[in-house]
Amino acid sequence: MAEVRARPASIRSARQAAAGGRARAAVEHGLWHRPALLNLISDLLTLAAAVALGWALVIWFLSRPLFPLRELVVVTPPSQVTEAQLQYAARLAVQGNFFMVDLDSVRATFEKLPWVRKADVRRRWPDALELRIEEHEAVAYWTVSESGDARLVNRQGEVFIAASNADMPQFDGPQGSAARLLARYAEFSSLLQPLGLRLVGLALSAREAWQLQLDNGMTVVLGREQEKSPLAERLKRFIAVWPGVHQEIDIDIKIADLRYPGGFALTPADASVLLQPASTTGRKGKQ
Fold it and tell me: Cα(124)–Cα(217) distance, rounded to whole angstroms?
């Protein structure tokens, strides 16, 4: 019986010894018993702290009034933007020293000025900013049909806000159609050259109907684009016969309506001529 009681005790002692050995092995292989890993972590933490401190010192140094901006150099002298406008924008936008100034913010401020299409801002060592400006080149006045707002149109067909008293044609049309009117203006102006007439106004209605205003006071109603009778073809027919028709009727015409497929209708500037006895001259020009 004594041997039977001794065997469980010996088994427990062996298990306890094994468990204790595993515990000591786990402790000996833990983080705090691995000096090489601890040294690596310590070095990484020290390096991170040094980088953060160095960056903070750099920012602090650059933000000191040691590199003030003293000059704005305008590389492309503007023709529309005034010096007072440039000075105002510079005072408003230029914040910080040579290194800390936000060039994107400065550029955006200059591009908000009237007549400025694009601006480019660069640093010029040691204390200046270099400014290049591309100005809008206005080619027409623009009125938005829906709102009646007055704008200008540049050579790229872009609408911008500015004041001008230049002799330019007047465009009227739905919002977003300025580029189309500019392209049509060039086309129609070229077609009108044989008549010696200048296109001073061009309008596009919300229903896509076109209307031309000539410098002799005549309004040419073209109407909508048609597959069988394109706008350009209708205008060419009118230009081809108009000199002879005008010489024959010998009256001032207010409106020439070209919406007919084979001819055009004329409205005289003086309506009283319609009350006179009818002559052999018709009121409708034929191709």
Answer: 55
Return the closest-CA partner of residue 94 out of 109, 80, 82, 84: 109
Distances (CA, A) of 126 to 65, 91, 98, 276: 13, 19, 8, 83
Which of these, 197, 207, 199, 198, lies nearest to 177 by C-alpha position?
A: 207
Q: Per residue in 66-80, pLDDT tens? A: 788 999 999 998 999
Q: Residue 134 in contact with residue 123, Cβ under 8 Å? A: no
Which residue type occupies 108?
A
Cross-strand partners of 130: 73, 122
Residue 286 binned pLDDT confidence (cut-offs 50, 70, 90): very low
d(CA 169, CA 38): 80
Using DSSP's 3-state secondary structure scheme, residue 98 falls into coil
Rounded to the nearest 5 percent, the helix, strand and coil shares of the chain are 40, 25, 35
Name, in order, each residue with C-beta under 8 angstroms of 71's C-beta and a sequence gap of 6 or more.
Answer: 127, 128, 129
Task: Cite the DSSP H helix spans in the chain.
Answer: 2-28, 35-63, 83-93, 103-111, 178-192, 231-249
Sorted by sequence, the CB contacts under 8 Å of residue 125 that are 6+ apart come out as: 98
